[in-house]
Each structure stands twice: as structure tokens, then as C-alpha cells.
């Protein structure tokens, strides 16, 4: 069989791996949006006539590790270009993927209108760093509906027989509700082989989610390496870290705390921890605004899947009957309500997306409060190069928004990583070391920046693993 890396190769996003068996049966593992936009080689090959370097109609099966767009976001395009098969995923991944894909389709609809409004033959000027969307990528809600109709859900740890010679198992990995590592057991010419795909490895003791479960021994392992070169800096429990910042920002002084957070996963962890602080730790009644319709919808998905959460969350729910809703919480429904928050003069906490401050309602909250010395902007996750979140973390003192207008940054900028859903170097090492280095033939490192991959490769070499590959886009390997 042959494994080809068509995404997340020497970059973080766009997970897409094609497994071709000797009898012609083909399996695509993940089909994510390339948010890094490193597409030079792809565009040279495809000539802009397709989004895929293979024929989608020839794929027999798609497996989806979890709902995040960098793993699921190209599925509607795959179907639009001819894929006719099923998409296997876990029960909780289906509703979350549906929400995220519909949200992406709504953004695409706006982009389509912008492209259609441009004069014929002219292109809107964009900066070199700003990516101009390829019209082929802009699927709409109709394509999302066609996609989710193809989903077939499989329970965790249930060996699902695809055929007489192929079975697939979804193994809990934390990170996000429904997220899984995938093990494929395949028999070819009387020889049995197993291939493991990590998806995104979660971290231990994360709010709401169980710890990553052990993957059985495999012959080949495709392993993410997002945090392969570093450890999480914050050692405090999420409750302690957040309570300390709330005290400094909203209690010791009459200020406001703005938390940019991804709507699916990160916001639910924050709301659960805040509920614990108010309910069990006696935090004063400070108003909390959750300003994201997508966050509200995904929170309801979490509430319907309490059985998949960790022991702490289940026990809290049994005692208090609510995981996320508490007296001081307001879910903001529309833009009018969102903008009205600026007129709220009491100390408050605002949680809004996007997490990197690259679009979404949070941009308005951040821009409004940058000149406010009583405001704190708390980054709780990774912020990619070029985003406003990344610029703020680098310590910029003012923000130029036009030739004649510059905003001084008087707000306090802080960051913590206790809410990061990715396992760090220690978590990834534990994940790999469940595999015997005598039996594991090859490790393929994906889903990380090259520097992180090379650091993790050296780390694993030191621990006795020998054949470790860092594939480039389009590299293929015989297994």
C-alpha cells in the first residue's frame, strides 16, 4: 500500500492523507482547509482547475478525526468535485462539523458577493500577506448539506469492518468533543498491517474532556507535532490561572477582561471553568458576555453529549444540573447587542471569537478597548503570524488603522496557555511511547511548523525511535 501526504506537511493546517491499497481501494484521512496558504507547489500541479491532486470520484472512503476546519473544511469541495462515498466519524463530530462547515459557508457567501462586485477584469488590491480566496474553494450551504448527508457515525473503541480486509477504530484523544485518533487494520496478500493517525493529540487534565486514550500497537504512525518543540508554560490549574487574572482585572480595579476564544472547544472550557469559579469558589458576581452565535450552538452540542465528558464534568453536572449556564452569564444574540456591550460600564468579562483576533465580533471589542487602560486582553491560545493577536503578543504599542489614524495601545495584553487543547512535548512523547520502538516501523511527523517537527524528531531519536520521516507536500511512501 502507498501513503501520500497531501496536507499538513511541514505546516500546521490542511490535514489530508491518502492511503492507496494494492487492489485499488483508496482511503482519505481528513480533508482540511489549508489555513497556512502555502500552496505554490499545489497550484503548479493543479493549474487552478481542481482543489485536489487526485481524482475525488476515485476515493472509496473518507475518515474524519475531528470537526476543526483544518481537518474537515475541504469536505464540501471534495463532494462537489465528485466524491460519492461515506464519511466516517464519531457521533459528536457530526454536529460540530455541521456547525463549523455552515459557519464557513456563510463566510464564503460574503466573499462570493465581494468577488462578484469587483469590476470585470480588475482585482481588488490586497497586501502580500493577505490571502485572496480561490473561487473554487468557496462552497456554500447547499454543499454543506450534501456533505453532512454522507456522514456515518461510529462509536469510540468499536472496531468497524469496512470490508473483509479493512477495519477502522476511533480512539478518544481529548482535544475537542468527539475528537479521535484513528487506527486502520488492513490485510494485504495475507499480511496484516496497522496504521495509526493521531488527528490532534489532546492534553491531560483539560477542562471537560477525558485524557487521551492509549493507541494500540501499530506498524506505522502518523503523528501531529504542533507542540513538538515546547512545553506548556503555565503550570497552574485553569481555575487558578483564570481567577488570578479576573481578580487583577475586574476586582482590584473596575476593569473589563476581553478573551478572544475559538467558538468550538475553547469557549466551552472557559465557560465551564467560570461556572466552577462562581458556583464553588465564591467569585463575585461579575457579568460575563459570551458573544458568538456559533459558541452558543456548539455549547448546546456539548450539553447533549455529557456522557463523552470527563469524570469531573459529569460529577459537576450531577450536582449543579448545569455545565455552562450561570446567573451572571449573557449569551449575545446579534450585532446590535454585541455593540451595546461597549456601553456597559461595570466590570465585566467578554468572551468572543475569533481566538487569534482575525475576524469575528471580537475585533470590535478589542479595537474599542485598546486605548482603555482599565482593559485587559487575554490571549488563551496560539495566534498565527500576521494576526492581530500575534501582533499584540509581540508588544506593539500602537495600531495604525489608516493613514491618518493610529490607536495607542493602553490596554494590558496577557496570555496563558492552560486552555490550549493541544498536547505539548510531554503529552506527544507519552503518546508515541505507547508504541514499542522494536515494533513501530516508521513515524511520520505532520501538522506542525518545520522547526517544531525537527525538534520533536531529535527528541524521539534520543528516546530510541529510528525511522522518523518529515514528509513534504506530495511525498509518498510504500508501507
TrEMBL record:
Among SUPFAM superfamilies, the record links this protein to: Metallo-hydrolase/oxidoreductase
What keywords tag this UniProt record? Hydrolase
Q: Which GO terms describe its molecular function?
A: hydrolase activity; RNA endonuclease activity
**EC number(s) from the headed UniProt entry:** 3.-.-.-
Membrane-spanning regions, if any? none
Superkingdom of origin: Bacteria
Database matches in Pfam families: Beta-Casp, Lactamase_B, RMMBL
Q: Which segments constitute the Metallo-beta-lactamase domain?
A: 13-262
What are the Beta-Casp domain coordinates in residue numbering?
Answer: 267-392
Under PANTHER family, the record lists: CLEAVAGE AND POLYADENYLATION SPECIFICITY FACTOR FAMILY MEMBER, INTEGRATOR COMPLEX SUBUNIT 11
Q: What is the protein named?
A: MBL fold metallo-hydrolase
Q: What is the lineage of its organism?
A: Bacteria, Pseudomonadati, Bacteroidota, Cytophagia, Cytophagales
Amino acid at each position: 500500500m502507498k501513503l501520500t501526504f497531501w496536507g499538513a506537511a511541514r505546516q500546521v493546517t490542511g490535514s489530508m492523507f491518502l492511503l492507496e491499497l494494492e487492489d485499488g481501494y483508496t482511503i482519505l484521512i481528513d480533508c482540511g482547509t489549508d489555513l497556512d496558504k502555502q500552496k505554490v507547489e499545489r497550484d503548479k500541479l493543479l493549474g487552478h482547475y481542481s482543489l485536489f491532486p487526485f481524482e475525488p470520484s476515485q476515493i472509496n472512503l473518507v475518515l474524519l478525526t475531528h470537526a476543526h476546519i483544518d481537518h474537515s473544511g475541504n469536505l464540501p469541495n471534495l463532494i462537489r468535485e465528485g466524491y460519492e462515498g461515506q464519511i466516517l466519524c464519531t457521533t459528536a463530530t457530526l454536529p460540530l462539523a455541521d456547525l463549523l462547515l455552515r459557519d464557513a459557508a456563510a463566510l464564503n457567501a460574503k466573499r462570493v458577493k465581494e468577488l462578484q462586485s469587483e469590476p470585470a477584469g480588475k482585482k481588488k488590491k490586497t497586501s502580500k500577506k493577505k490571502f485572496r480566496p480561490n473561487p473554487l474553494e468557496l462552497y456554500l450551504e447547499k454543499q454543506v448539506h450534501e456533505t453532512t448527508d454522507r456522514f456515518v457515525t461510529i462509536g469510540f473503541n468499536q472496531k468497524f469492518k469496512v470490508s473483509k480486509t479493512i477495519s477502522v477504530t476511533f480512539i478518544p484523544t481529548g482535544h475537542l468533543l468527539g475528537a479521535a485518533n484513528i487506527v486502520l487494520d488492513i490485510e494485504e496478500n495475507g499480511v496484516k498491517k496497522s496504521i495509526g493517525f493521531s488527528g490532534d493529540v489532546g492534553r491531560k487534565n483539560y477542562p471537560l474532556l477525558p485524557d487521551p486514550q492509549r493507541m494500540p500497537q501499530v506498524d506505522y504512525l502518523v503523528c501531529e507535532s504542533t507542540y513538538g518543540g515546547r512545553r506548556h508554560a503555565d503550570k497552574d490549574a485553569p481555575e487558578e490561572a483564570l481567577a488570578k487574572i479576573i481578580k487583577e482585572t475586574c476586582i482590584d480595579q473596575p476593569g473589563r477582561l476581553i478573551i478572544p476564544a475559538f467558538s468550538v472547544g475553547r469557549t466551552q472550557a472557559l465557560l465551564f471553568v467560570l461556572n466552577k469559579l462562581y458556583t464553588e469558589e465564591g467569585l463575585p458576581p461579575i457579568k460575563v458576555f459570551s458573544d458568538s452565535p456559533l459558541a452558543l450552538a456548539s455549547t448546546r452540542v456539548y450539553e447533549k453529549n455529557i456522557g463523552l465528558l470527563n469524570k469531573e464534568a459529569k460529577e459537576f453536572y450531577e450536582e449543579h444540573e448545569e455545565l455552562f449556564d450561570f446567573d451572571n452569564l449573557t449569551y449575545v444574540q446579534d450585532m446590535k447587542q454585541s455593540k451595546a456591550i461597549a456601553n456597559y460600564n461595570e466590570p465585566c468579562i467578554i468572551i468572543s471569537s475569533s481566538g487569534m483576533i482575525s475576524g469575528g465580533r471580537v475585533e470590535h471589542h478589542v479595537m474599542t478597548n485598546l486605548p482603555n487602560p482599565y482593559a485587559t486582553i487575554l490571549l488563551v491560545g496560539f495566534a498565527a503570524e500576521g494576526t492581530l493577536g500575534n501582533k499584540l503578543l509581540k508588544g506593539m504599542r500602537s495600531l495604525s488603522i489608516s493613514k491618518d489614524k493610529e490607536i495607542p495601545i493602553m490596554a494590558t495584553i496577557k496570555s496563558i496557555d492552560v486552555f490550549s487543547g493541544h498536547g505539548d512535548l510531554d503529552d506527544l512523547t507519552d503518546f508515541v511511547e505507547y508504541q514499542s520502538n522494536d515494533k513501530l516501523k516508521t513515524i511520520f511527523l505532520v501538522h506542525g511548523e518545520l522547526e517544531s517537527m525537527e525538534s520533536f524528531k531529535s527528541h524521539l531519536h534520543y528516546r530510541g525511535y529510528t525511522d522518523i520521516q518529515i514528509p513534504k507536500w506530495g511525498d509518498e511512501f510504500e508501507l
